[in-house]
């Protein structure tokens, strides 16, 4: 298990990245910097998204394997002759409902991954938990309320694929915001620290966005 606060190399790279403000990653990716045309509920008109994050794509592998097995299951069962005595029309109806359930499960899992996002703007950090189509929970904190940011990468797979957790300690009502299993956690943590420093500098200089 590794915990990082920052390294000179990582921070230097992020300063250059932030200064150029170029888009990195597509809107379907788990790591997207400076996404274009993205709006979210509660955003200020002058607020700009710096990072749009989701859990690393590898976290989807489990439910993808389950869906694959669910697709194969009827073929194996029917091929084994277990339902030879069942009328064909009932077999067709059964297959229809089975694949309907499979599709619904796959769609639910994808939407959960797609809409459970972590957002870093030039003003705040957000954790958006999408529970279902009618319920979501949003936790946020202003940059000037952030007290500490740590990134953690543990395990061989996480290290090889460079994904892990970013824990943000705040003085807000939500004292801890967690970005779980996100790509490039060291870079994410460095960006948040940099934005926090910029926010503090703006306050000292009396600048208002």
The Rg value, from CA coordinates, equals 22 Å
Q: Please identify, by name, the CATH architecture of the largest domain.
A: Roll
- What does the largest sheet look like? 5 strands, antiparallel
Spatially, the strands of the biggest sheet line up as: 2-3-4-5-6
Return residue spans where pLDDT drops below 50 for at least 5 consecutive residues.
6-19
Instruction: State the order of secondary-structure elements, H for helix, E for strand.
Output: EHEEHHEEEEHEEH
Q: Which strand-content bin applies to the residues?
A: 25-35%
> Could you say which overall geometry the principal axes of the C-alpha atoms support?
elongated
Mean pLDDT: 84
Count of spatially separate domains: 2
Describe this structure as you would to a colleague.
- The structure is a single chain.
- With 209 residues, the chain is of the alpha+beta class.
- The protein folds into two domains: 2-55 and 116-204, PH-domain like (Roll), CATH 2.30.29; 61-111.
- Helix content is 42%, strand content 27%.
- It is built from five helices and nine strands; from the N terminus they run βαββααββββαββα.
- The protein has helices at residues 8-20, 61-79, 88-115, 156-161, 185-205, and strands at 2-4, 31-33, 49-53, 117-121, 124-132, 135-142, 146-153, 163-170, 176-183.
- The protein has a five-stranded antiparallel sheet with strand order 2-3-4-5-6. Strands 1-7-8-9 form a four-stranded antiparallel sheet.
- β5 and β6 form a beta hairpin.
- It starts with a strand and ends with a helix.
- Residues 6-19 have low confidence and may be disordered.
């Amino acid at each position: 298990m590794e915990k990082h606060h920052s390294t000179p190399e990582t921070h230097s790279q992020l300063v250059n990245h932030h200064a150029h403000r170029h888009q990195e990653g597509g809107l379907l990716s788990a790591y997207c910097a400076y996404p274009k045309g993205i709006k979210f509920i509660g955003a200020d008109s002058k607020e700009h998204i710096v990072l749009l994050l989701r859990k690393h794509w590898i976290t989807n592998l489990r439910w993808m394997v389950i869906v694959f097995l669910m697709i194969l299951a009827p073929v194996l069962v029917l091929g084994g002759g277990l339902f030879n005595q069942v009328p064909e029309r009932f077999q067709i109806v059964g297959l229809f409902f089975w694949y309907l359930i499979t599709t619904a499960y796959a769609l639910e899992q994808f939407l959960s991954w797609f809409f459970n996002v972590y957002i870093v703007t030039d003003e705040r950090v957000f954790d958006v938990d999408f529970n279902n189509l009618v319920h979501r929970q949003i936790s946020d904190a202003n940059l000037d309320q952030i007290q500490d940011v740590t990134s953690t990468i543990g395990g061989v797979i996480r290290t090889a694929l460079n994904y892990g957790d970013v824990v943000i300690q705040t003085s807000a009502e939500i004292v801890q915001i967690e970005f779980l299993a996100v790509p490039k956690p060291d870079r994410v943590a460095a960006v948040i620290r940099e934005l926090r420093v910029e926010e503090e500098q703006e306050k000292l200089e009396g600048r208002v966005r």
